[in-house]
Design brief:
Elements (H helix, E strand, L loop, with lengths): L1 E13 H5 L4 H4 L10 E13 L2 E5 L9 H5 L9 H7 L9 E3 L5 H4 L3 E3 L6 E3 L5 E4 L1 H8 L11 H10 L2 E3 L4 E4 L2 E6 L6 E8 L2 E5 L22 H18 L2 E3 L8 E7 L2 E8 L5
Parallel strand pairs: 3-4, 4-7, 7-8, 12-13
Antiparallel strand pairs: 1-2, 2-3, 5-6, 9-10, 10-11, 11-12, 13-14, 14-15
Length: about 280
């Protein structure tokens, strides 16, 4: 197995929204905001090369929305999904499995793209199976008012129309070396992949733990639909991660790709940060 970090660029979100009830004087120590209280966040994906499979986990925000839409999120950086895949020697056509942790636009926007004359939307990964789950699909296609702005139909419905959509059977093994855990605090039935790699467990954190700055339990996003459930999920997961020395792959941390955690007198806290290429 080989793992490749796929950077798709950066965007900005309100710092207060990203840290919920935690005061700015605390969260700004790890994530410094600009003059508009916006913090920079990565949209970092993971490419898993295993046997004859090339599995991409999440795909960033995409490029098909309007200029006005993108201006709300201040996209920046030199990286894109296509550029990053090309740097690793791959194209979108090489992807065999497109695994979607959940269907918020910053995680699945690259799933669908326009054709050349922008008259039709098509799967960006024409040879891939797109993986979601039935519970989350139902949640995303019939969105509640709180999440409606995050579930964009143009990112989601064409996947099913293409015939390339499949649902996982539930938690547990999906591919050789890759298993799934569900988390329900951020959004319903978000999937957290666990990957066995070089005798280590790599966990793709999606929005269960956006960055190292979110490790303390109360640091829960205002975007989470069930913040108390998130706290409980974090408590259980981080204790396990510290006990078993998991490596946490961080989708949104603007600086750190991976980290480990450890038990301290204050609870589970950051231990080390590093790139996946250093494992």
């Amino acid at each position: 197995m080989k793992l490749h970090t796929i950077e798709t660029g950066f965007f900005k979100l309100d710092g207060g929204a990203m840290f919920g009830v935690v005061p700015k004087t605390l969260w700004s120590r790890t994530n410094v905001p600009d003059n508009n209280n916006l913090c920079t966040w990565a949209m970092r994906c993971l490419l898993v090369e295993e046997g004859n499979k090339l599995i991409l986990i999440d795909n960033g925000i995409g490029n098909k929305q309007s200029e006005k839409f993108f201006s709300n999120y201040h996209l920046h950086g030199e990286d894109s999904l296509e550029k990053s895949l090309n740097k690793k020697g791959f194209t979108k056509s090489d992807i065999t499995d497109m695994f979607l942790t959940h269907l918020h636009f910053d995680h699945c926007g690259g799933s669908i793209e326009y054709n050349e004359d922008r008259t039709k939307m098509l799967p960006a990964f024409k040879n891939a199976v797109y993986w979601s789950n039935a519970e989350h699909w139902e949640w995303a296609t019939k969105p509640n008012p709180r999440e409606k702005a995050s579930f964009l139909s143009e990112n989601i419905l064409p996947i099913k129309e293409s015939g390339q959509l499949q649902f996982v059977a539930g938690e547990g093994d999906l591919f050789t070396g890759l298993s799934i855990m569900y988390a329900r605090g951020h959004t319903d039935a978000m999937m957290i992949p666990h990957i066995q790699y070089k005798q280590k467990m790599i966990v793709y954190m999606a929005d269960l733990l956006p960055s190292t700055g979110h490790i303390p339990l109360p640091y829960v996003m205002g975007y989470d639909t069930r913040p108390l459930i998130t706290m409980d999920e974090k408590l259980k997961f981080l204790n396990t991660a510290a006990d078993k020395e998991y490596i946490l792959f961080l989708e949104h941390d603007p600086i750190n790709e991976c980290c480990t955690v450890q038990h301290t007198e204050k609870g589970v806290r950051l231990k080390e940060v590093f790139a996946i290429s250093e494992i």
